[in-house]
Design brief:
Elements: H1 3-11, E1 25-29, E2 34-39, H2 51-65, E3 72-77, E4 82-84, H3 98-116, E5 122-126, E6 129-131, H4 133-140, E7 143-147, E8 154-155, H5 169-177, H6 179-186, E9 191-192, H7 194-200, E10 205-207, H8 215-229, H9 232-244, H10 253-271, H11 276-288, H12 293-308, H13 311-328, E11 344-348, H14 352-363, E12 367-371, H15 375-394, H16 400-407, E13 410-413, E14 424-427, H17 433-446, E15 452-455, H18 462-466, E16 475-480, E17 489-494, H19 500-512, E18 516-521, H20 528-544, H21 549-559, H22 565-572, H23 574-588, H24 596-603, E19 616-619, E20 622-625, H25 628-633, H26 644-664, H27 671-682, H28 691-698, H29 700-713, H30 722-730
Parallel strand pairs: 2-3, 3-5, 4-6, 5-7, 6-8, 7-10, 11-12, 11-14, 12-13, 14-15, 15-16, 17-18
Antiparallel strand pairs: 1-2, 8-9, 16-17, 19-20
The chain binds 1,4-dihydronicotinamide adenine dinucleotide.
1,4-dihydronicotinamide adenine dinucleotide binds next to helix 14.
């Protein structure tokens, strides 16, 4: 190759390959003969493999294959923090024909096979997320190197969207790292960092952390070693040798059968039959064993096609997209201001929640000053924060030195020193309106003009709390769920006078803390407890009517909830549930009439799990139904009085009624807020796509008919909400497009 041609290739102007560099890829041939194909999808934060990008790659690969001046090819990303984030989900979300789905897989597979068939070594140089289709592309390369970097995450998360890796992932990964290791990744969708990817054998070389981003130079160096050391047949042998190292159990058919049987049992247990994708992925891996790659890929394509067409996958994709949408939402429609910067945060109250919130703030590198009434109270909060940090260290999610550093960000005080420079104060003191009002008035005199004053109250009115201060527009609800570090949802409650600016800043701050904020209008129970309260109450009413504890809870477990309503009441605390019930009753009247069961349990001093006794008895880590409960309630409960469907219908439609009313009353702005709120706040089953999406799947007519039937059989609390009657009449749904 002459110098001129090399230059042309470099500047990307003349020959066949470089003429096509106007799209997402850029081609660059170095003097060493190492060529780079850099992917940088314009205008996007991450690289996504859309069909347009794949098509462009297809053309480029034909040109590249025909050239004789390339000795090795490196796939690299033009984005600092992202290799490839996967294939474009929008392109499969409307596919309902399994064959069409399979065809999409075949196209991707054929394209990636072209990479593998190139007549020179191909290397993927990974920094940042390399997931889904991104990893499948890397797996079709002959070598992979990856840089240790906070954003480097490698894996196949497809099952989380109800599909399986269909561009070769279920076939190439087991052939590379063995069956058990790949099943652990493919069936859970778990992502690993660069170091772990190296240990698992996914990548050939792990590059140390580097903040300057010299990825290209190191990739070229690696490519040169490959060119010198390995001839094509040599690295083929090397790959095969790796396969022979497979763990003993995998090397014989009995061992393999054992692995697959065990994994299937485990998968069935964890998915309870609600999620088909992990099982199909398992099938794809199993049926691919001992077959040629080509045969394996065809199995994979067909199974992917079936999953793409499934309702579960449509639901999971919908949740994914709603969540992404929510992450971008500033919290108000037509936002006119940018969020204010938050640096200094202060906390009031170092109890259960205060300690948890302090940990979350410090974990996210905010310095936080926490005030309580005395040192003992402060110590409780500090200890709690330390305990949560310690758990992260024990689980290898955080290094010990990081923990020590982050703990120093939390300081304690018994006066208001340090509050004058505060940008944001979170109050988490006792749940008592008078006390909170007094403290807010006191607080306002200590902070500056711009400080936002947030309350973590779970049941008091933000408008009432704000009435105690001079500038109520800066007061907002910041309702965390317990345990703070684990629960993703944060309800942000606007009082009557809360300003848009305050809301926008609070929403942006919540996101900085890694939470998913939904903005809720001030109203009893906000969103989550407003829906949860009547649901739990209906569970108690059913117990009153003669259903058994086991039946009630199991019906909702079968529906897919993480636990049934009575179990949930035990978890929340019967004292808390009782109080919430009273608040909702005072606000909404008859339809939320508290069940006598909750009152009796409360009066009997049963606290639920925290007291060791509720509807269940708690001993160590186990729990069992307490038969004494029936004596206490003097009930005659018979199993079989209610069918599972009847129980589910009443419990689900109780939630649906409240959710529809919340939308009618504009407690939240969109159906999306209800569905994400319930999924992330109470674990509403994701495979159903959310409560309102589930209602859409039944159809408004069916929902209306069920409400009418329940209103007749059970009581007026099931009178159909107006909005659903209207939707039934007009043929509408909560989500206009599916
Ligand atoms: P807690 O009783 O564990 O802690 C309250 C702390 O506030 C105590 O350390 C107390 O000494 C302190 N305190 C009382 N008056 C004070 C004052 N004037 N100045 C400074 N500190 C003062 O209570 P918990 O459970 O942490 O709840 C706090 C708030 O969070 C309440 O509003 C509650 O409704 C809300 N919340 C509680 C949840 C939970 O699951 N525990 C969940 C979500 C919200």
């Amino acid at each position: 190759m002459s110098e001129v041609t090399k230059k042309e290739a470099k500047s990307g102007t003349k020959n066949g390959v470089s003429e096509k560099t106007t799209g997402a890829f850029e081609f660059d041939l170095k003097e060493s003969g190492v060529a780079f194909l850099t992917l940088d999808v314009r205008g996007e934060k991450v690289n996504i493999l859309s069909s347009k990008v794949l098509q462009e790659l297809d053309g480029l690969l034909d040109d590249i294959a025909a050239r004789s001046d390339i000795k090795a090819l490196v796939f690299i990303s033009g984005k600092q923090d992202n290799f490839i984030a996967g294939a474009e989900i929008n392109e499969i979300k409307d596919v309902t024909d399994p064959e069409e789905g399979a065809q999409k897989a075949r196209q991707g597979q054929a394209l990636f096979q072209k990479i593998y068939d190139l007549p020179f070594p191909v290397i993927a140089a990974i920094q940042g997320a390399c997931v889904g289709g991104g990893l499948e592309l890397a797996l079709a390369c002959h070598f992979r190197i990856a840089r240790i970097h906070p954003k480097t995450k490698i894996g196949l998360p497809e099952v989380k969207l109800g599909i399986l890796p269909g561009f070769g992932g279920t076939q190439r990964l087991p052939r590379l790292i063995g069956i058990q290791r790949s099943l652990r990744l493919i069936l859970t969708g778990k992502l690993v960092d660069a170091a772990m990817a190296g240990r698992l054998g996914i990548v050939d070389k792990v590059l140390p952390i580097d903040h300057h981003g010299f990825m290209k130079a190191e990739a070229e160096e690696f490519a040169n070693v490959v060119i010198q050391k390995f001839k094509r047949h040599a690295y083929e042998n090397r790959r095969n040798a790796k396969r022979l190292h497979a763990i003993f159990l995998e090397s014989n058919s009995f061992g393999r059968k054992f692995i697959f049987d065990q994994t299937r049992k485990q998968t069935l247990r964890s998915t309870k039959g609600h999620y088909p994708a992990p099982l199909k992925a398992l099938e794809a891996v199993q049926r691919g064993v001992g077959k040629s790659l080509r045969e394996g890929l065809e199995i994979e394509a067909k199974l992917l096609g079936e999953l793409i067409a499934s309702d579960v996958s449509k639901n999971l994709i919908s949740i994914f997209q709603l969540t992404e949408e929510l992450k971008k939402d500033p919290g108000v429609d037509k936002a006119k201001s940018e969020p204010a910067e938050i640096k200094n945060v202060n906390l009031l109250g170092a109890g259960v929640m205060g300690g948890g919130i302090a940990q979350l703030l410090a974990f996210n590198d905010f310095s936080v000053r926490m005030k309580d009434i005395n040192q003992e109270a402060l110590d409780i909060g500090l200890n709690r924060a330390e305990k949560v940090f310690q758990q992260a260290v024990d689980k290898h999610k955080l290094g010990r030195s990081d923990m020590m550093r982050k703990m120093t960000l939390i300081s304690g005080t018994t006066d208001y020193s340090g509050f004058s420079v505060s940008d944001f104060v979170i109050e988490a003191i006792v749940e008592n309106l008078e006390v909170k009002q007094k403290v807010f008035a006191e607080l306002e005199a200590e902070v500056n003009n711009k400080t936002i004053l947030a309350s973590n109250t779970s049941s008091l009115s933000i408008t009432d709390i704000a009435s105690a201060v001079k500038k109520p527009e800066r007061v907002i609800g910041f309702h965390f769920f317990n345990p703070v570090h684990r629960m993703p949802l944060l309800e942000i409650i606007r009082g009557d006078k809360t300003s848009d600016e305050t809301t926008i800043t609070a929403v942006a701050f919540a996101k900085k803390l890694g939470k998913l904020p939904i903005v809720v209008k001030n109203s009893p129970g906000f969103l989550v407890n407003r829906i949860l309260g009547p649901y739990i109450n209906e569970g108690a009413v059913l117990l009153e009517e003669g259903a058994t504890i086991e039946e009630i809870d199991k019906a909702m477990l079968d529906f897919g909830m993480p636990m049934g309503p009575l179990n949930l009441l035990d978890e929340v605390g019967i004292d808390v549930g009782y109080k919430v019930g009273q608040i909702l009753y005072a606000a909404f009247g008859e339809r939320t009439t508290p069940s006598a069961v909750i009152e009796k349990m409360h009066n009997a001093g049963r606290l639920g799990k925290k007291g060791g006794k509720g509807f269940y008895i708690y001993e160590g880590k186990s729990k069992r139904i307490d038969p004494e409960v029936y004596n206490l309630l003097s009930h005659e409960n018979h199993s079989g009085k209610f069918s599972v469907e009847d129980l589910q219908k009443r419990l689900v439609f109780t939630m649906l009624k409240e959710a529809a009313l919340c939308l009618e009353e504009e407690i939240v702005r969109r159906p999306r807020d209800v569905d994400t709120g319930l999924i992330y706040g109470i674990g509403f089953p994701p495979f159903r796509g959310g409560l309102l999406r589930y209602a859409d799947s039944l159809g408004a007519k069916k929902c209306l008919a069920t409400f009418e039937e329940l209103a007749k059989q059970v009581g007026a609390r099931f009178e159909p909400p107006k909005s659903i009657a209207e939707m039934a009449e007009k043929g509408q749904r909560f989500y206009q497009e599916r």
